[in-house]
């Protein structure tokens, strides 16, 4: 089913506009809250993914977080410069770069769950449990590949 036509498409009333606006609001609020850890919300995704074993290489992180490889490289450079992670070549395949959090990176990863839920809960404060569950369900459906 086509929900939009050239006659009824209005930028500020489109799904894309609302998703982008919501994303920008959450990123802005999350970035402000994470400032004390000296990381951004995008860097938070990398750190938590590594800490929880969801990904171990730049390629895996790029796929998981839907970040292009160029931006991923720049973010990894910054995190490495801050002393939060290290890169090493795979012994089995020199083309593969393995990533590992440093002790400092693990310390940051431990602090994130104290901060991030507060930001999200503030944004979701007017949602009922049912609305929250429905929002998650619909976003999952919308973002399914």
From TrEMBL:
Keyword ATP-binding set for record: no
SUPFAM superfamilies assigned: Winged helix' DNA-binding domain (SSF46785)
Signal sequence, start to end: none
Alphabetical UniProt keywords: DNA-binding, Transcription, Transcription regulation
PROSITE patterns to which the protein is assigned, alphabetical: HTH_MARR_2 (PS50995)
InterPro entries, per the entry: HTH_MarR-typ, WH-like_DNA-bd_sf, WH_DNA-bd_sf
HTH marR-type domain sequence ranges: 1-144
Protein name: MarR family transcriptional regulator
Organism this protein belongs to: Cupriavidus basilensis
Upper lineage: Bacteria, Pseudomonadati, Pseudomonadota, Betaproteobacteria, Burkholderiales
